[in-house]
Structures are given as C-alpha cells and as structure tokens.
Amino acid sequence: MKIINRYILSEAKLPIAFGISLFTFIFMIEIIVSMMESIIIKGISLIDVVRMLSFYLPMILSQTIPMGMFLGIMITFGKFTKNSESTAMNSIGMSLKDMIKPVVLMGIGVTIFIFFLQESIIPRSFNKLQQLTLKMAYENPVFQLRDKVLIDDMSDYKLYIDKIDPKTKNAKNLLIFIEEEDTKYPTLVLGETAHWKDAAMVIDDVKFYRFNKNGEENLRGTFEERKIPLSSYFQNVEMQVNDIEGMGISQLIEEMKIKKEKGEKLPYIVEINKKLAIPLSTIMLSVLGILMSIGHHRSGKGVNYGFGIGIIFVYIVFLNIGMVMSYRGKVSPYLGIWLPNILLYLFTIIMYKKKVELV
Predict the structure, then answer these.
(1) Which DSSP state fits 119?
(2) What percentage of residues in the chain have a pLDDT greater than 90?
(3) Running DSSP on this structure, what letter comes out for residue 186?
(4) 72 neighbors 17 (Cβ within 8 angstroms)
C-alpha cells in the first residue's frame, strides 16, 4: 500500500501545480491589468512591477491553493479512472478509504503550509509591498496621481491636473486650492506646467489669488516657480489589499484587543475566521476531488470538471456573500464565514456515502 500511496502522491504533483497556477492567474488578472497601466502610461519599470506581483503572490496563494488542490486531485483520479488504474487498485484490495488516506495526509500538510504563509510570509510580503509602493510613488509621483480628477486627500491642499504627459511625466494646466487658517476661502493657485522633485511638485509660471473672509479678492501675484510637497499624500498610497488582509492571525488578535467598540472589532473577527476557514477547506476539497472523479462516468470527463469548477464558484460566492453580510452586521461572522465550509463538508460526506456503495 505504501508504494501505491507514493505513486498517488507522485502523480498528483503536476496536476496540483497546474490547478494552483490556473486559479492564481485568474485571481491575479485584475492586478496584472492595473500593472500594465502602470507600465504603459505611468512609466513604472518592469522590474518594479514584477517585484510588486511577487509580494502580492503569497496573499493570492493562501486562497488559491485549496482550489488548485481540488482541481489537481480531480485531474489525477480522473486519469486513474480513464486508465483503469483505480479498478486495479480495487482489485488488489484497496478500498476507497485507502485511496483517500494519502490525499487527506497531503491536504493536512498543505493546510499547515497555508497557515505558515498567513502567519510568516504574508505579513512580510505586505510590509515589503508597502515599502516598494511608497518608494515608487516618491520616485515617480505619476504612479499615484491622476489627471482630470480632483485630489482632495492631501493635507492643506486640493489638486486638479488637467493632463499628465505620458512621455515626460510632467503635468499641464494645474489648479490648486490651499487652505488658509484666517479665511474660509482657499488661496487659488494656477500653474501651466509642473515637474517632480524629491516627493514634491515644482510648478512653473504660477499665478495665485487670495480672498478675504467675505470672499473678495484682496491679493494676486505671480511666481516663476512654486514647490508643493506631496509627501503626506503618499502616506496613503493605493494598493490592491488593505492592512487587515496583510496581517497574520496573531497580529489580528493583538490589534483587535486594542479596539474598544464592537464595530471596530468586527472586521478583525471576520478576517480571522476567513484565515481559518479557507485553509481548512483544503482537506475536504481534496477528498471531494477524488469522489467526483473516481468510478465510471457516463456523463463524460468534461461534465465532471465543469461540475467541479461550479462547486468552487459556488463556494467562493457563498464565502464572499458571508463576508459582506458579516462586515455589515447582518449575520454573525462565525455563521457567515463558516457556513460555506459546513455545506462543503456535508456535500463531501454525502458523496462519500454514495461512492462507498458503488465502489
């Protein structure tokens, strides 16, 4: 039996790697598209983009490994069925339970690895992603700034850029509102062009207009050059994941202890349960992969793979619905996050009982 177990695990390696790669690519499509915009329009180097993707990868893998395991096991045991290898295993006295055993052990090992990813690798990757994104924003502010959009989340400034030249990265036709303490009306600054230097925007050919407390213009003037610091804006540089997603379970628990209000603790409770539920689905998904592929299929292999992908899709939909409802306080986070796993376990048990009767 040990030889057959090693054979099963050996044959499953490549299909599982394929399954994980497939789901990882699907999950990363949105990030890749946004990165392409950064390369083509904003002049971000390809090396920096690849580094950013590598830092996103552990966060994606923690979600796609269980799905890849499911698809890989389905492909492996589908091949065993097609080549009559599963029938040969039965003929030498190997039961369905015996076939499932090595896959369960592998599922347990993979689950432990996902927890290691979440607790050790992901927090480090998230910190490096923050550092790299901030560095890119300082070196190339165009990475973060947008044209034809009023940017109002900078301290003391509101900024509107009509156009950013994709070649020179210089801004054209700027409008800036500078908040003043002694009047409710901001100082209006107009600039023809601007370039970037040391996390600041240097505006050329500046005209400014200042207003009194009644809204009447009381001062106007011109400058050849005006420097506007942007460092405060880059402290909140935009990324595809938030702080909570980049924390491990132990970090989330520590942060949650600091929060006093129930509403402040809720996102942490939801994320903790998510980080527990997804890895623990690996074992049942692996077993389900066997149950859905082993035996004689009158309906055909393609139908079974389609049905399997459908199960993954339903699981993801239910999990996301549960998370949204949990965040909004509509349902308990424990019910919202764990219900998809409970349904998955029940479905697997039902499938196992049916297969035991057939095999």
Answers:
(1) I
(2) 24
(3) P
(4) yes
**Amino acid letter, residue 106:** M
Taking the CA atoms of residue 35, residue 41, residue 43 and residue 46 in that order, the dihedral angle to the nearest 10 degrees is 30
Q: Environment class of residue 58 by beta-carbon count within 10 Å: exposed (0-12), middle (13-18) or buried (19+)?
A: buried
| Residue type (1 letter), 186 | P
Predicted TM-score (pTM) of the model is 0.72
- Taking a C-beta distance cutoff of 8 angstroms, is the pair 77, 294 a contact? yes
Give me the percent of the chain exceeding a pLDDT of 70. Answer: 80
pLDDT digits (tens, 9 = 90+) for 219-249: 888 877 777 666 544 444 444 455 788 888 8
Q: Token match 């990813």: residue?
A: 117
Residue in this structure with the two tokens 């030249």, named with its chain if needed:
165
Closest CA to 314 of 344, 287, 355: 344
* Lookup result for tokens 């998510």: 274
Residue with tokens 């049905």: 307
